[in-house]
UniProtKB/TrEMBL annotation:
GO biological process: carbohydrate metabolic process; peptidoglycan turnover
Protein family (similarity comment): Belongs to the glycosyl hydrolase 3 family.
Keywords: Glycosidase, Hydrolase, Signal
Assigned EC number: 3.2.1.52
Key word Hydrolase present: yes
Organism: Micromonospora violae
UniProt key word Nucleotidyltransferase: no
Record protein name field: beta-N-acetylhexosaminidase
InterPro entries: GH, Glyco_hydro_3_AS, Glyco_hydro_3_C_sf, Glyco_hydro_3_N, Glyco_hydro_3_N_sf, NagZ_Beta-hexosaminidase
Enzyme class, first EC level, given as a word: hydrolase
Amino acid sequence: MSNRPWRARVAVAALTALLVSGCSGGSPRSAPTPSPAAPSGGPSAPAAPPASDPAGRAAALVATLSDEDLVGQVLMPYAYGDSATKVSAGSAAGNQALAGVDTPAEMIAKYRLGGLILVGFSADDPTKGNQETTNVDNPRQVHELTTGLRTAAGRLAAGSAPLLIGTDQEYGVVTRVTDGVTVLPSALAAGAAGDPKLTEAAWRAAGTELAAMGINIDFAPVADVLATRSTVIGSRSYGADPKRAAAQVGSAVRGLQAVGVAATLKHFPGHGHSADDSHQDLPVLTQSAAALQSGAWPPFTAGMDAGAMAVMSGHLDARAIDPGTPATFSHKLLTDVLRGQLGFKGVVITDGMNMPPAKRWAPGEAAVRALNAGNDLILMTPNVGQAYDGLLAALRGGSLPRTRLVEAVTRVLTMKFQLAELPTAQMSTLNTPAHRAAADALAAAAVTVLRGACGKAVRGPITVTSSDGRDGTRATLTAALTAAGVSVKPSGGTIVHLVGYGDGAKDLRADAAVTVAMDTPYVLAEATSPTLLATYSSSRASMTALAAVLAGKARPGGRSPVVVPGLPATTCAST
């Protein structure tokens, strides 16, 4: 079910008029404001609503919570350590600096947390700047960690609502859990495949595995349209066409949420409309309000229509709407536009508050500003204690209205109870043949030929080369080629050259017969190879699909979801 009311498309003129007027007054709330919670020691709640009424259960629980409990429920920090209760000396030191405790479980107990994000990064990860530690190693370790975290949260006053445990499992360059799970190709690969049914099936498989490990909210899919050559968004986006990207985003949402994992649309109002990186500075969106509505927001609205439970606000300066104010802290963007104009009723989550645009204020003030703007969850504060104390002081001092905090907590708890309604998959579902088949089908449909014959086998033997640091990917492709019956030798064969994230013209080979782009395909405009292919991803599934094409056993039916100068979207005729 959609979490925003059905409405006719808003005319550009109406939106523009609203924004020019400052969006003051009259913007309808997407959900009624709950009654204020009882203060500490107040009356107990009436009889609990039935389990089939998540919103009623949330409202009843909120009425019993103290100020301290309310504040804790809107915080979702990260923690150091791969176990809830047993951590290394280094992790304990990290937690002491972050929150004045030794372990993640102690952090949950002390600050009555609503959630925790599991972090980590790989070499090609454009978000690694704010991933200061890692919590993930393998699925069994993640499952034991999440079990321990939930045990700690179950002792809280709000413990009847399951702890939110999230991570950035986008697939592609931003993938937190990589070993022992089914790894999908990137979003851009799904955009190239252009088949929403394949996308939904793949994300349903992936979501099942996340749920089995104890993760119940994924900070995905990326709903940003790749309107610029943004390296921080890049292949994380489903493409440059808003309508095509919208179809993909809706499918990813349906796949995830069908198996009990909340989807998060990010990064509103559209990080792909700036080439700058919010992990370093405050990107500026120079587009008009009308251009954002038509060019940036269709994937967000499609995700909302698909029932997305959450939207992530971006550290982005949308000059046409609220100049100079990051969207994370913009009441106009989050309350007047996202909720009032677009009708979103779910949970709004900040992007990492340890990123530079959010650190212009102290953690406490930043948390208060973010909540007053319309966020419901504060993600990755750089200091948990300061954020908690700042929110509590603002609540008691009046600068954070109690109705705003209660509204936020009620939304968070409603989402928790909604997620608790679906049974959790077992660990035995991880990386099953059926799940791998869903990933393989999506990857196979994505392979694109931008120059050269459609589906013609490459003359063997083949020598696989790449830019530096891709030994593992070369080995994966070599194994897949061998399995497909192609002879591969270390040198002297027909050169198939791989380029990926961060590579440019300097990483190409003039003598390559085939050049393959495993991230955004823009670099292919500089390649001289007679055959140019794109997989948009270096996953095992993508390399298996590439091997089938190189062996002449599969037709490369994908279409580039972004424009590459001088090259067609595909040289394969439509069927």
